[in-house]
Specification:
Helix content is 31%, strand content 22%. It is of the alpha/beta class. The protein has one domain: Isochorismatase-like (Rossmann fold, 3-Layer(aba) Sandwich), CATH 3.40.50. The strands form 3 sheets. The chain has a 3-stranded parallel β-sheet with strand order 3-4-7. A two-stranded parallel sheet has the order 1-2. It has a two-stranded antiparallel ribbon with strand order 5-6.
Amino acid sequence: MKTLVDGFAAEGSPIVLVRHDSGDPESPLHPDRAGNAFKPALDGVEPALVVPKHVHSAFHGEVDLHAWLRREEIGEILVCGIQTNRCCETTARLGGDLGYDVGFVIDATHTFDEPAQNGRDALGADLLAQATATNLHGHFANVTTTAEVLGAIPAAG
């Protein structure tokens, strides 16, 4: 994710940071908890916009991301971050439904192993990421990689 963000920062493209502010005081994502802070890889990033949110999609945050993107005349978004199969996937789906050209940078997302609904089995993070990529690609987003995205940025000079 840092490589992706650094590439876009160097190009001067707007970067939007989204932070999940859980209302549950026991959640590691509660504003009073260390898990709520942006990861150190984002230190020094000058975001064009910060979107605090309480639900999965960045489009349902305290800041109206859709209105901001329209005002800025931005029709393409790239989704990366944590958690691949929850907030990232939900944001990509809603972005696609709203008509954005969505790039889902799969290697710039992260997820965790999850227990299956039967309570006995677990699904590994790699399988969950693969399922997300399969769900999104060609339907809600173009699933891509950091190298592919950065390779499409025109060289400065």
